[in-house]
Specification:
By secondary structure, this protein is of the alpha+beta class. Helices cover 19% and strands 23% of the residues. The strands form 2 sheets. A 3-stranded antiparallel sheet has the order 1-4-5, covered by helices on one side.
Amino acid sequence: MKVFVRDTQSGWFYQGPSQWTPEQKMALDLGQVARAVEQIFEARLENVEILLSYDEPRYDLVLPVPAAPSRADTSRRPDPEQPDMPGERKSAAHRHKKAPPL
């Protein structure tokens, strides 16, 4: 099995920092999914997927890579006064009340 990173828009394969190729045989084989994930985060790649390529192309697997949250989103802390459900707003005290026994 070979492990490639592929641009979802162009279909080109990752070769290295700022290098892409339309030919799979010229792409960087990362060898393991974990290495592909590390490379995606280190190089800050967006709009990519991981391709697990086997000798028989019908067995190839595509692993979608979710978009990375923006820096603003990762620094935000949850607001305890935000609603638990859409359209609902509960105070911190109300959220921890137990229902009365039936």
